[in-house]
Specification:
This protein is mainly β. It is built from four helices and 32 strands. Keywords: Signal.
Length: 474
């Protein structure tokens, strides 16, 4: 047998013994999660600092978006030591930031009063909503086109309009909290908000089309009866873990309910949050459906998403485990939703009596994902929280999952494992981060970098450095 014949025979045998497609799959195997720290830059050496509701006003994980990336530039917003609202930008990869001070100062020492940013791609504007907690809000937007060609535009106060207490004349509610901007697939900008107060509020949506804002209306209900083994409650509010468009064009929202009446919990030091729910919209937030597709609410209509609606709860949990509200969510490249939730598991007891202390001592985070078959899988992340606070979820280009935990720790799991191989990739060493961090949800898709804003620990009201750290992902 000649060498050529032997080689040909070997190739035939290899083809015959290897299952079809296996070689291609081996060549195309996705890498697992990994992080490489590439930069750590300072935004402000003296950012405002005070602890409120166990958080900082410049670094609340629900802040959407305190840090964002668009067309090669990254933008950050915060309050300085003298309480001035500030917005900065840098070209991706740059170590220095250009800063603009806006004509507004933080009104209260309340960590809810965050600054949230959004981009209306339809006209290239940057929008900021700030300084509200069950009160009025303050709103400002940039000149049209400022974000479309940033290198050729000045970055100064003249690029921003006047600070308003409406959305260009549209008044939403006198009890406004939790602004979250989200861009529609067509480039319009939506603003999610809560009307009302903790334990008795409704979620609403407004929309900007490049010329004006329209209030689409409220879509969650505060009414109805919820009964636990301890008692009943007749009012509540839905807390969103996020609101995001997926690759399929659906608007996804995980949530938990908070009851107004404390009689539903086993002890007064607990928290009345219960159940993890999920709904989606296929018509840009006008109609809401369960994971199975059943309609359960209409924005601005009489039928809103309510406690007890069949099919909305995807992970049931009673109010006795200090379930955290406003944690985190993401959608993968196929549009499948997943979330991070956290609470005190039952193995540590069936009644939390002090939610801050109990979560700090025994709280655990869990990864919840809907698979292609339509079933939900929950996996405990085997890293203690060591904090009462929240984690943020992001996915890399291979759909590996990363949870950025309190103190800037990064843990991750691979998609190939079914998100079962969670491990610590970065332990937060050297950051001296206070607790929660603000993740740039928009940057990963643009240059493969996980970027988050953190504030260093201080005490009392002594200002401290505010920084942005960058990690390259696969």
């Amino acid at each position: 047998m000649t060498p050529t014949t032997a080689a040909a025979l070997a190739a035939v045998l290899l083809t015959a013994t290897v299952p079809p497609g296996a070689a291609a799959q081996a060549r195309a195997a996705a890498p697992g999660p990994a992080v490489t720290r590439v930069a750590d830059t300072q935004l402000d050496g003296r950012a405002v600092y005070f602890e409120s509701y166990n958080g900082l006003v410049n670094n609340n994980a629900f802040q959407k978006n305190g840090l964002l990336t668009y067309k090669g530039y990254q933008y950050a917003a915060w309050y300085t030591a003298d309480r001035t609202a500030t917005v900065a930008r840098r070209a991706l990869g740059a170590n220095t930031w250009q800063t603009v001070r806006l004509p507004h100062k933080l009104t209260l020492d309340d960590s809810h009063n965050v600054i949230s940013m959004g981009v209306s791609r339809i006209d290239g504007r940057l929008h900021l909503n700030m300084d509200s907690h069950s009160s009025g809000f303050f709103y400002v937007k940039s000149a049209a086109g400022l974000l479309d060609a940033p290198a050729g535009r000045a970055w100064d106060a003249g690029q921003f309009g006047a600070v308003q207490t409406t959305l260009d004349g549209l008044a939403l509610t006198s009890q406004f909290t939790y602004p979250q901007f989200v861009a529609t697939p067509e480039g319009r900008l939506q603003l999610s908000y809560r009307a009302g107060v903790s334990g008795n509020g409704r979620n609403g949506l407004a929309e900007y089309d490049g010329s004006r804002w329209t209030n689409l209306g409220e879509w969650s209900s505060a009414t109805g009866t919820y009964t636990s083994e301890h008692g009943s409650s007749a009012a509540r509010n839905m807390y969103l873990h996020g609101i995001d468009y997926g690759a399929d064009g659906r608007l996804h929202a995980f949530f938990t309910w908070r009851e107004q009446n404390n009689t539903v919990v086993c002890a007064p030091g607990g928290i009345t949050n219960h159940d993890t729910g999920y709904v989606y919209s296929s018509d840009r937030g006008r109609t809401w459906r369960t994971a199975a597709g059943a309609v359960v609410g209409t924005t601005g209509g009489s039928d809103k998403v309510a406690v007890g609606d069949p099919g909305t709860v995807v992970d049931p949990l009673n109010p006795d485990h200090s379930l955290m509200n406003q944690e985190s969510q993401a959608t993968d490249s196929a549009g499948l939703p997943q979330a991070i939730i956290s609470y005190v598991p039952g193995r540590f007891g069936q009644c939390t009596t002090d939610y801050v202390k109990d979560r700090t001592a025994n709280g655990r985070a869990f990864h919840l994902v809907k698979n292609a078959a339509g079933t939900w899988k929950k996996t405990e992340i085997p890293v203690p929280l060591g904090s009462s606070q929240r984690s943020r979820l992001v996915l890399d280009r291979y759909d590996n999952a990363y949870a950025v935990m309190p103190y800037g720790r990064i843990v991750a799991a691979s998609k190939d494992s079914g998100y079962s191989d969670w491990k610590t990739l970065f332990d937060g060493a050297g950051l001296n981060a206070f607790g929660e961090v603000v993740v740039d949800e928009t940057r990963l898709a643009q240059d493969g970098v996980l970027s988050f804003m953190y504030q260093q620990r201080s005490s009392g009201t002594t200002p401290s450095p505010l920084r942005v750290v960058d990690f390259r992902l696969p």
